[in-house]
Design goal:
Structural class: alpha+beta
Strand content: 15-25%
Radius of gyration: 30 Å
Keywords: Aminopeptidase, Cell membrane, Glycoprotein, GPI-anchor, Hydrolase, Lipoprotein, Membrane, Metal-binding, Metalloprotease, Protease, Signal, Zinc
Pfam family, one: Peptidase_M1_N
Shape: globular
Number of domains: 4
Family: Belongs to the peptidase M1 family.
Low-confidence stretches: 1-18, 865-874, 876-886
Membrane topology: Lipid-anchor; GPI-anchor
EC number: 3.4.11.-
Bound molecules: 2-acetamido-2-deoxy-beta-D-glucopyranose, zinc ion
Helix content: 40-55%
Mean pLDDT: 91
CATH topology of the largest domain: Immunoglobulin-like
């Protein structure tokens, strides 16, 4: 009983937090309006801000304290005041909760329910370099490269507004904002809304105060402001309802690389406004491209901020993919102006409610505005691949899950949540059909504009337009509130014309199947005699918990294919006979029997995953992969070859040689179909062919197909390598260095060192990283890793990623990584190092090698990657053995 009395002692102690130990603010007060005045000091010697925030509070429940968020701010409590029109209160005491980042003010007397008060708090803070809150950044002058220019910018999402001013920093506490912003007049100031008027500072010479128009009801994480002396690359008016005016702010030296983004911005916004049939409510959007930025981009209402790399495009050096990716980023941020800014999740647990739709609609925007890129097919295919792999481990979590502190909130922003969120939206789209889906989406936006939602609000809006007699909330909860996905297995009774369908969770290590999970699975079948892959709304459902059903579909002589367009996120296994009929069609029928490319990709991905689990044979896998020689589309071709390589890279000795020969045979017909590589600078290549051709040329050279290598070398020695189109230059540089002499290497090393821009550095690095002589490669790796310039040390990652793929340098490269692990750990973040790590893991063939790798990397926080096991050593070894038998 001794322990018990101690517990009682703890509870009665006057530790105030024991009274309020919860991660959300009390629901006693509602902030309705913020009046924010901030003066920023920013020069060589002074870099801080000071301000006053006045918050209009509506008292929902009588209370004797005011609890809000503040972190790293200096607050003079004697300056705080709390007043209503009838009454003046005072502060008895204040307290900080580090755990919850709360600032708690204990009042002299109660605030009365139903009354309105004005809380005024003065505060000060340092402009930090952590790229969160209100932070500073800098760049050197273009002409006088030793002159430094500063800027100060905000990054409030998700939980960093509290670093800049005291506030109710939760997405559900929406309020209006009046921002008045003071700074030295040599700077330009921006906030979410246009400047209303500017006036001189009361006493500071050359300082001005500029007040901005009132911002509509919004969450704190979307408020933004900045002072800077960047250059406007162009002012463009869009054709939207408000004729929204765009300005685009960049460092002078990269202004000339912004044309494409500047041109696309107003078009994207206009498209989305028409698409959602809901006007964009602000009158301007400033796009600020910051030399340092924590995320690729941030959708602040009316003041969208970007990383430089996510906005600029260098025609001479960058790949087409970069242009497309950047455009997609902008489309994503602009989709947020509706999904997130206008309609906002109540709490970060439902982050997917803004990221899923913004990601998915971002894809649709690109399809509409740049159809020649065939963007969404490519992205969806990649997302599916990532999802099926990632969500097949026992370490994933539901996309909607509660989060209880800032670290957990930040962790929600993962590729997994974005991509599964997008795939979930796509599944809803296909289940409901295009017309209903968009009607539901428009109703939802209209209904919840300026408000907050939970996922059930989205599902209920869609339910209203659904023809289906299903409960969308129940159906969708099974996908969003639990991790993982099902494997649907079909067993056909060809005599009876029946098919038995069941589900179980797909887990990569098959001893781990969690029998208790089930999903509401939409079933759409396509049959060989009626290959309609467009009209695909589900005709049946596999219910949950009932997990098996028998249906009458198809005739005995034809294949069945489940899940056309892979619109629902599950894998499918068929009986062997059905697989064989599918393979036969892929091999022999015109246009693959109408089976769309995204299904062709998935058939390969599923079958290989099933073989790895021992659910199907590798013989069947190789039978299917034979059709690859006939494949004319990029996506299936790329996936097929890449999948084979992933497994093949684990083979050793004779098996490895045999495998290389096999891949060479797969590639040869593709290579022979393309024009000679030597002609690359003289023929126009359609934009949707660029990636395909580069892939085939690159792979063909890697496996020594025909004259690929000598063609590439010829291109380089023409001494016109600079005239090789940017999209193919890396390929040519790579071969030139791999097959070239020490002199070639030294020449390119010189070019690398003299390159002024990251794009150029990266192009040369892609060549240098291909050296087949490790002592040369080491010279480059040492130079890159020790550089203080970020874009140069980034080239280390690029080079080792290439080198790890090359047998003759892989071992020494791995050692180089181990030898520099601590330095890498300091210089890079986990997401930068992930590709290297994944490559090293893929090469492992025994559990002993895995232990060795873990031993080398233990204690290094950025290398901590809980997914080390997921590739499953076991399956890899099995593949190894099976291929040898083949
Ligand atoms: C920098 O700003 C501070 C605060 O505004 C000011 O006192 C100081 O004189 C400024 N220094 C220079 C070099 O302009
Ligand atoms: C502040 O007041 C609310 C409601 O009156 C109460 O629930 C909460 O525990 C108080 N907070 C603290 C830290 O005392
Ligand atoms: C908060 O302040 C601490 C101590 O001054 C500092 O170490 C930390 O970097 C600051 N955090 C941010 C995000 O600025
Ligand atoms: C930028 O200017 C600072 C201050 O003069 C100087 O120390 C630094 O080396 C310059 N950086 C570059 C990349 O030129
Ligand atoms: C915000 O500022 C504008 C312009 O001064 C003013 O008309 C408006 O009343 C202010 N809003 C609030 C809620 O104080
Ligand atoms: C602002 O930028 C302009 C043009 O780049 C330059 O002429 C001016 O000196 C800069 N001012 C400051 C204070 O950096
Ligand atoms: C996942 O599986 C591994 C074994 O493969 C096991 O060690 C680990 O505890 C499991 N994790 C969870 C969350 O079940
Ligand atoms: C956030 O919560 C997680 C899980 O409860 C915990 O492990 C972590 O230490 C917490 N982080 C902070 C900064 O409180
Ligand atoms: C399917 O349902 C049956 C009976 O309802 C149950 O025994 C079985 O464990 C379930 N299997 C899976 C994979 O959920
Ligand atoms: Zn986003």
């Amino acid at each position: 009983m001794f322990g018990f009395s101690i517990q009682i002692l703890f509870i009665v102690l006057p530790g105030v937090l024991a009274l309020y130990d919860y991660h959300l603010l009390p629901e006693t007060l509602e902030p309705q309006h913020y009046d924010l005045r901030i003066l920023t000091h920013l020069n060589d010697t002074a870099q801080y801000f000071e301000g006053v925030v006045k918050i209009d509070l509506w008292v929902l429940q009588t209370t004797k304290n005011i609890t809000l968020h503040a972190k790293n701010l200096t607050i003079d409590k004697t300056g705080i005041s709390v007043k209503s029109s009838r009454d003046s209160n005072c502060i008895e005491n204040v307290e900080l909760s580090e755990k919850y980042e709360f600032y708690i003010m204990y009042l002299c007397k109660e605030l009365n329910a139903g009354e309105k008060y004005i809380l005024e708090i003065p505060f000060k803070g340092q402009l930090n370099e952590s790229q969160t809150g209100y932070y500073k950044s800098s760049y050197n002058d273009t002409e006088n490269k030793y002159k430094t220019h500063y800027l100060a910018v905000t990054q409030f999402s998700p939980t960093f507004a509290r670093l800049a001013f005291p506030c109710f920093d939760q997405p559900n506490w929406k309020a209006t904002f009046n921002v008045t912003f003071g700074y030295h007049k040599e700077y330009k100031g921006l906030s979410n809304t246009p400047v209303r008027k500017c006036e001189k500072h009361e006493f500071l010479e050359d300082y001005i105060w500029c007040s901005h128009e009132q911002l509509l009801r919004t969450s704190t994480y979307l408020v933004a402001y900045a002072i800077h002396n960047l250059t406007n690359a162009g002012t463009v008016t869009s054709l939207t309802h408000n004729q929204v005016v765009f300005r685009n702010w960049l460092q002078p030296k990269i202004v000339n690389q912004s044309d494409f983004s500047v041109e696309m911005a107003p078009k994207i916004l206009k498209y989305l406004e028409d698409f959602f049939q809901l006007n964009f409510p602000l009158s301007k959007i400033d796009q600020l491209i910051s030399p340092t930025h924590k995320f690729r981009a941030m959708e602040n209402w009316g003041l969208v901020t970007y990383q430089e790399n996510a906005f600029v495009f260098n025609e001479a050096y960058d790949l087409q993919e970069k242009k497309e990716t950047n455009c997609n980023t902008m489309a994503h941020e602009f989709s947020h102006q509706w999904f997130g800014n206008l309609v906002t999740m109540k709490w970060w647990k439902d982050l997917w409610l803004k990221e899923g739709p913004s990601t998915y609609f971002g894809y649709l925007v690109l399809d509409a505005l740049q159809p020649q890129w065939e963007w969404s097919d490519g992205k969806i295919t990649k997302d599916l691949a990532y999802f099926f792999r990632h969500d097949a481990t026992n370490m994933t979590r539901p996309i909607s899950r509660d989060v209880k502190n800032s670290t957990e909130v930040l962790d929600q922003f993962s590729k997994y949540v974005y991509e599964k969120g997008a795939l979930t939206m796509r599944m809803l789209h296909k289940i409901l059909g295009t017309e209903n889906f968009f009607e539901g989406i428009r109703n939802y936006l209209q209904k919840y504009a300026y408000q907050n939602v939970e996922q059930t609000d989205l599902f209920s809006s869609l339910q209203e337009v659904a023809n289906e007699n299903i409960n969308l909330n129940v159906v969708m909860d099974s996908w969003t509130l639990q991790e993982g996905y099902p494997l649907i297995t079909l067993k056909r009774d060809y005599k009876k014309g029946e098919v038995k369908v069941n589900q179980k969770r797909f887990i990569q290590q098959n001893n781990l199947q969690l029998e208790t999970q089930c999903w509401w699975v939409p079933l759409s079948f396509v049959s060989q005699s009626d290959p309609n892959f467009e009209d695909i709304q589900p005709n049946h459902w596999l219910e949950c918990p009932s997990n098996e059903t028998t249906l009458k579909v198809g005739t005995s002589k034809e294949w069945l294919l489940l899940n056309p367009q892979v619109y629902a996120i599950y894998r499918v296994n068929y009986d062997e006979h059905n697989w064989k009929m599918l393979i036969n069609t892929l091999q022999n029928e015109v246009d693959y029997g109408g089976i769309p490319k995204i299904n062709r990709v998935q058939l390969m991905d599923d079958l290989l995953a099933l073989a790895a689990l021992g659910e199907q044979s590798y013989d069947l896998v190789f039978e299917l992969f034979e059709y690859l020689k006939l494949e004319r589309d990029y996506l299936p071709c790329e996936r097929g070859i890449t999948l084979l390589q992933q497994y093949g890279s684990l083979l050793k000795d004779q098996a490895a040689e045999d495998f290389n020969l096999y891949l060479k045979q797969q590639l040869t017909p593709h290579y022979r179909r393309l024009p000679k590589l030597k002609l690359i600078d003289s023929i126009e290549i359609p934009v949707n062919e660029i990636a395909f051709r580069r892939f085939i040329y690159t792979q063909s050279c890697l496996y020594n197909v025909d004259d690929c290598v000598s063609q590439a070398v010829m291109l380089n020695t023409n001494d016109s390598s600079i005239s090789v189109p940017a999209n193919f230059r890396q390929l040519v540089y790579c071969i030139a260095i791999e097959k070239g002499t020490t002199w070639d290497f030294q020449q390119m090393m010189k070019l690398f060192k003299n390159s002024p821009t990251p794009a150029q550095q990266s192009a040369f690095a892609s060549g240098l990283g291909c050296s087949s002589n490790f002592s040369q490669l080491k010279e480059f790796l040492d130079y890159a890793i020790h550089s203080d310039t970020k874009s140069i040390s980034d080239c280390y990652i690029q080079a080792v990623t290439a080198a790890l793929k090359r047998d003759n340098v892989a071992r020494e490269t791995k050692q180089h990584i181990f030898d520099h692990a601590e330095m890498l750990n300091k210089k890079f973040k986990r997401k930068d190092l992930e590709p290297i790590l994944m490559h090293m893991v893929k090469e492992l063939t025994t559990p002993e090698e895995l232990s060795e790798l873990k031993e080398h990397l233990k204690d290094l926080s950025q290398f901590k990657e809980p997914k080390l096991e997921i590739l499953g050593i076991r399956q890899v070894v099995m593949f190894n053995i099976r291929f040898r038998i083949n």
